[in-house]
């Protein structure tokens, strides 16, 4: 149905007495067999679905408001409204409704819903009593009129009769003329009666009366009547405020007289509702529902009329971004857009989409980038409010803009960095603006709203952009306030290893807490981006400096950050924590807290309790090995004893497993110390490192327990098949400063085969047949441990029964040499590392 006359918006009134949009469609009045009567049907213009099916009941009260609205109630708390695009369409449907109910289309309301007792009394009334008899509009009758208006408010049918009487006789304008007379005569009693009369007329809740009372020639007199509240000693001066104090500012001259009148009317009616009228009681809440609707639909009209005036908006944007515009003018322009965006919240979703897209096309985001960097606090605050409307409406639109800006702009000024800087530089002692901006940043970097099917790469692209261009700006205050000075290589509990300046300024502490809150959010919702950043910047160590802060809330924020990292149970994070000995600041904070039973104490205990309950073996072993002597005295909780118990149980299980492995691994032949490489060996391993490149895995402390050996041993056995494929190439890397893999061959001083440190290189490289045959008599019947590195794995593989293979190795120069570990009284030990962790040496 393409007839624009029947184009409507469907609204329902929610529990908060606000109108919710249900969609746009076309209305018709049709006989519905299922409902046994005429009904109003609204079908969506987008897909033809049924938005509304409402039977026109003979007892339902329909109201016609502002020539384009029809409002009615279908149940006790279910109000509906149809907003027509054209007055002609509204008139057509109104005639259909009046025809079904047998009413004259000239009326503004068909009837009122009444209870049974009221209906019975109404049926008993004679035909001549359809209207209330109003007293003559004279000064000496004001008290009688006031009593009449007050008495009808409790009766729905009498309220309706009074409203019709006031409309038919033009009574409102006569009353307002009396008000002017009373003011001239300073008739205080008459003015008090007029206050009661006008207040009662407003509570009649009739749109037709509002149209008269809020017209240009009447509204100021209505406000005047409401100044003379009998309960006040002196009358208020509302008219003086509206005419002198509250000035209408036009940032750009509005030429449309209808739009100007609508803006004035809406402001004044809003003032009456919010300022002049008292807060309605529970029993009066519904008395002003029509007044709320009147304001709501006025705002819809204002936004629509402004949006359609493209020249007006273009001129506003041109002046907003013009460098020649003075600060006062720019402040007014920004405040105009703030109010404009606030009014847009009354639009239905489709129209709101069009509204914000119009603003985006006109350049609202580049304009905000300019004004958010201004020194004027009011301008910045208003710009922040506008930015919040845009982010809440469409985070994707903002993300798309900032990424395009990074590609197209030559300077380093990016909108999102401007937002971060405003958050950091907030002058408010309570950081109210910073908290608001933090919420907007969280919305922008939240992966949950980056799942739009139209742009599946949005998450990856934007997060890569954010960590490349913006993260360093966000963390700059944190890094600046946690400068480290290392005074020793090894950590000892209780040592003053790190000296750092913790911020004692309360406002700085608050800011760091906000930054940590956002970083904690990143740990929870981002994956490798934040992980790489933490590893590269050693960020957790810097954050834990704040555990020394005198502000407990800041120490708790730092602890929460670490707790989220440990909560991921990520192996990389765990190794990073162990390598940096990052439990030391936490345990020192626990000890410094002493016996105080507070939130900090509970949060630290909960951290260790989580490690115990989740049985994170790597962290458990590290804590027990390094800190248990310090913590075992804490007995008011069983957390640390429980950690030790888990540690001992795991150790026992590993020992049982080791007892079941082949004979070559039995009899406690494991020692954890590694001999220092001699100069030639060191040089050879360094050369090998250059070929291999550095490992990605961060280095880990060598104090790994035997618990890890069994797990690595399983991986060594899995690599058995890969040995034959890699026999033609042997690379034996040493551990570099970045934690790459290494292993060392250390020989006894009395080796009988004449091998010394100068030829250790030959032990890992293909040799000549002669050199191989020199020990063939002993190696033919010996199992040969073979060292291999395949895809980042160093493996020790034993072939106890492969005698024929050993013979082939003797004959072929292509095979690697067999390392004899039984003959000629030689003792050999093999020490190597897997992913930065030392594996115990094997000696024979």
TrEMBL record:
InterPro entries: ARM-type_fold, EVH1_PP4R3, P4R3-like_central_dom, PH-like_dom_sf, PP4R3-like. SUPFAM superfamilies: ARM repeat, PH domain-like. Residues 751-785 have a biased composition (Low complexity). Residues 723-733, 812-823 have a biased composition (Basic and acidic residues). Residues 144-649 form the Serine/threonine-protein phosphatase 4 regulatory subunit 3-like central domain. Residues 685-694, 799-811 have a biased composition (Acidic residues). Residues 685-711, 723-742, 751-823 are annotated as: Disordered. Residues 5-101 form the PP4R3 EVH1-like domain. Belongs to the SMEK family. This is Serine/threonine-protein phosphatase 4 regulatory subunit 3 isoform X1.
């Amino acid at each position: 149905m393409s007839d624009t006359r029947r184009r409507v918006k469907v609204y329902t009134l929610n529990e908060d007495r606000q109108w919710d949009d249900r969609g746009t469609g076309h209305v018709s009045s049709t006989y519905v067999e299922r409902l046994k009567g005429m009904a109003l049907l609204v079908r969506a213009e987008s897909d033809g679905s049924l938005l509304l099916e409402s039977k026109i009941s003979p007892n339902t009260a329909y109201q016609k408001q502002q020539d384009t609205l029809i409002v009615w109630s279908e149940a006790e708390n279910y109000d509906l409204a149809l907003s027509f695009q054209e007055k002609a369409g509204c008139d057509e449907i109104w005639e259909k409704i009046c025809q079904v109910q047998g009413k004259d289309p000239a009326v503004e309301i068909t009837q009122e819903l009444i209870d049974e007792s009221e209906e019975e009394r109404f049926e008993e009334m004679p035909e001549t009593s359809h209207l209330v008899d109003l007293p003559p509009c004279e000064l000496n009758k004001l008290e009688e009129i006031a009593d009449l208006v007050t008495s009808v408010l409790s009766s729905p049918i009498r309220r309706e009769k009074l409203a019709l009487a006031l409309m038919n006789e033009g009574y409102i304008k006569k009353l307002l003329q009396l008000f002017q007379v009373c003011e001239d005569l300073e008739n205080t009693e008459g003015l008090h009666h007029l206050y009661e009369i006008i207040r009662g007329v407003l509570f009649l809740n009739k749109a037709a009366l509002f149209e008269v009372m809020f017209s240009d020639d009447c509204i100021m007199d209505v406000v005047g009547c409401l100044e003379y509240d009998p309960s006040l000693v002196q009358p208020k001066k509302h008219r003086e405020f509206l005419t002198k104090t509250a000035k209408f500012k036009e940032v750009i001259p509005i030429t449309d007289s209808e739009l100007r009148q609508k803006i004035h009317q809406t402001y004044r009616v809003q003032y009456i509702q919010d300022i002049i009228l008292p807060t309605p009681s529970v029993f009066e809440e519904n008395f002003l529902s029509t007044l709320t609707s009147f304001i709501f639909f006025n705002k819809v009209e204002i936004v629509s009329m402004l949006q359609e005036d493209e020249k007006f908006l273009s001129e506003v944007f041109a002046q907003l971004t013009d460098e020649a515009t003075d600060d006062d003018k720019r402040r007014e322009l920004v405040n105009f857009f703030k109010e404009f965006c606030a009014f847009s919240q009354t639009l239905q979703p489709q129209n709101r989409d069009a509204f914000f897209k119009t603003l985006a096309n006109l350049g609202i985001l580049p304009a905000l980038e300019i004004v958010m960097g201004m020194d004027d606090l009011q301008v910045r605050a208003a710009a922040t409010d506008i930015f919040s409307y845009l982010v809440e409406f469409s985070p994707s639109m903002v993300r798309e803009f900032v990424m395009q800006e990074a590609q197209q702009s030559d300077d380093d000024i990016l909108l999102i960095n401007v937002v971060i800087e405003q958050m950091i530089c907030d002058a408010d002692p309570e950081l109210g603006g910073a908290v608001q901006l933090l919420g907007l940043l969280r919305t922008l970097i939240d992966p949950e709203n980056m799942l739009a099917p139209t742009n599946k790469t949005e998450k990856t692209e934007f997060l890569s952009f954010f960590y490349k261009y913006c993260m360093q700006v966000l963390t700059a205050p944190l890094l600046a306030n946690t400068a480290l000075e290392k005074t020793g290589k090894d950590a000892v509990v209780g040592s003053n290893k790190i000296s750092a300046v913790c911020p004692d300024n309360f406002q700085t502490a608050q800011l760091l807490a906000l930054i940590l809150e956002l970083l904690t959010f990143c740990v929870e919702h981002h994956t490798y981006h934040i992980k790489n950043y933490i590893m590269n910047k050693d960020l957790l160590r810097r954050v834990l400096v704040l555990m020394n802060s005198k502000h407990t809330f800041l120490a708790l924020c730092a602890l929460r950050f670490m707790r989220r990292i440990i909560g991921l149970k990520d192996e990389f994070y765990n190794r990073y924590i162990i390598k940096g000995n990052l439990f030391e600041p936490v345990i020192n904070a626990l000890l410094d807290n002493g016996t105080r039973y507070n939130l900090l104490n509970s949060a630290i205990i909960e951290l260790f309790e989580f490690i115990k309950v989740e049985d994170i073996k790597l962290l458990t072993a590290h804590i027990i090995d390094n800190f248990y002597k310090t913590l075992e005295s804490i007995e008011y909780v069983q957390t640390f004893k429980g950690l030790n118990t888990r540690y001992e149980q795991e150790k026992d299980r590993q020992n049982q497993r080791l007892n079941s492995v082949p004979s070559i691994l039995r009899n406690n032949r494991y020692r954890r110390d590694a001999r220092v490489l001699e100069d030639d060996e060191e040089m050879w391993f360094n050369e090998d490192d250059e070929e291999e490149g550095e490992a990605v895995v961060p280095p880990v402390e060598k104090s790994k327990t035997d618990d890890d050996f069994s797990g690595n041993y399983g991986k060594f056995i899995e690599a058995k098949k890969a040995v034959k494929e890699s026999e033609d190439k042997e690379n034996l890397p040493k551990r570099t400063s970045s934690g790459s893999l290494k292993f060392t061959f250390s020989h006894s001083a009395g080796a009988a085969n004449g091998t010394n440190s100068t030829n250790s290189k030959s032990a890992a490289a293909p040799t000549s047949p002669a050199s191989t045959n020199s020990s063939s008599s002993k190696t033919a019947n010996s199992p040969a441990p073979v060292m291999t590195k395949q895809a980042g794995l160093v493996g020790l593989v034993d072939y106890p029964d492969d005698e024929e293979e050993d013979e082939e190795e003797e004959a072929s120069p292509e095979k690697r040499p067999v390392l004899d570990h039984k003959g000629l009284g030689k003792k050999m030990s093999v020490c190597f590392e897997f992913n930065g962790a030392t594996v115990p040496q094997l000696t024979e």
